[in-house]
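Quick one, tokens below:
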């Protein structure tokens, strides 16, 4: 994390629920984190842990109803994004904050050319003329590594490969020079070779543009390679966060340790047996009053069922939400 950098984004006590027949789903429960200029924050956790819902809550991207942000502040500079009007939020989305979605084929509009879709935010957010927007669109396609960029502006999404479509999505997200870029598992649908190319592209763009990035993924290997800091989520909560090297070398939460143990490993020419996390994720039908991981945790004791642990500091920028002291090996 850049030393002394000022946070560009500060999230405190964010809570999001989905109103459903017969009750509510508590999808995001008191999530707090910050993001500093030039930093890449990795957000990890299994499906249903609240990663995507948290980030979509920041930008009012969830359908309402059924979604409702119940509490929290999301400070982008001196503005609380949860209190701005709809017009201001539209100017922030795609302007100050870019968002790359998981599946580029469903995120890009199939009936408009790629050029039109890149030029649209340039004209609406930055007020560029059609000619200047076209020139900027060419620059963006070249920036993300698409050859013969000017001629490809007139092509439609189906004329691009999966990797090229994802590059187009990155170009759209970068169009207005955002302060923050949120990438929601952007390489999940791509093969390993294309995934590696996209990751190298993000590293390169981060160095060139100096933007802050939130990278949502379930792939810990990706986070090890690109992130400064990692935030581990489970049951709609942050259970551990800290510098990547510190968390990977000394994981303090049983869930973090379990996730790291599920990563495939090679010892010489021999593969070790793939580990799994026994049990099922928690039901989120009510606000958690106990530790959400207790039913799958080998260290659970009485207090885990009676009290949801608060996050406590372990060291500089490293905290954990757990009643078990992993260093002492006791409650």
């Amino acid at each position: 994390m850049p030393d002394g950098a000022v946070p560009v984004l500060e999230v405190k006590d964010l809570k999001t629920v989905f109103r459903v027949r017969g009750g509510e789903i508590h999808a995001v429960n008191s999530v707090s984190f910050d993001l500093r200029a030039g930093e890449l924050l990795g957000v990890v956790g299994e499906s249903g842990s609240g990663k995507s819902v948290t980030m979509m809550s920041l930008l009012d991207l969830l359908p309402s109803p059924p979604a409702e942000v119940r509490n929290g502040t999301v400070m982008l500079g001196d503005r609380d994004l949860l209190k701005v009007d709809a017009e201001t939020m539209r100017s922030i989305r795609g302007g100050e904050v870019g968002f790359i979605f998981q599946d580029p084929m469903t995120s890009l509009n199939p009936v408009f050319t790629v050029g039109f879709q890149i030029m649209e935010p340039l004209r609406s957010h930055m007020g560029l003329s059609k000619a200047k927007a076209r020139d900027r669109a060419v620059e963006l396609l070249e920036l993300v590594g698409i050859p013969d960029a000017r001629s490809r502006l007139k092509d439609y999404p189906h004329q691009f490969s999966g990797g090229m479509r994802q590059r187009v999505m990155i170009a759209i997200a970068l169009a207005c020079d955002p302060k923050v870029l949120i990438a929601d598992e952007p390489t999940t649908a791509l093969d390993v070779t294309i995934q590696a190319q996209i990751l190298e592209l993000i590293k390169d763009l981060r160095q060139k543009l100096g933007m802050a990035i939130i990278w949502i993924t379930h792939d810990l290997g990706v986070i090890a390679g690109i992130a400064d800091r990692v935030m581990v989520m489970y049951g709609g909560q942050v259970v551990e966060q800290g510098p990547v090297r510190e968390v990977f070398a000394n994981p303090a939460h049983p869930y973090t340790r379990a996730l790291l143990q599920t990563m495939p490993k090679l010892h010489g020419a021999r593969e070790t047996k793939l580990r799994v996390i026994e049990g099922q994720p928690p039901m989120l039908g009510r606000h958690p009053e106990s530790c959400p991981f207790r039913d799958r945790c080998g260290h659970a004791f009485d207090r885990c069922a009676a009290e949801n642990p608060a996050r406590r500091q372990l060291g500089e920028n490293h905290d954990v939400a757990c009643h078990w002291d992993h260093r002492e090996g006791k409650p």
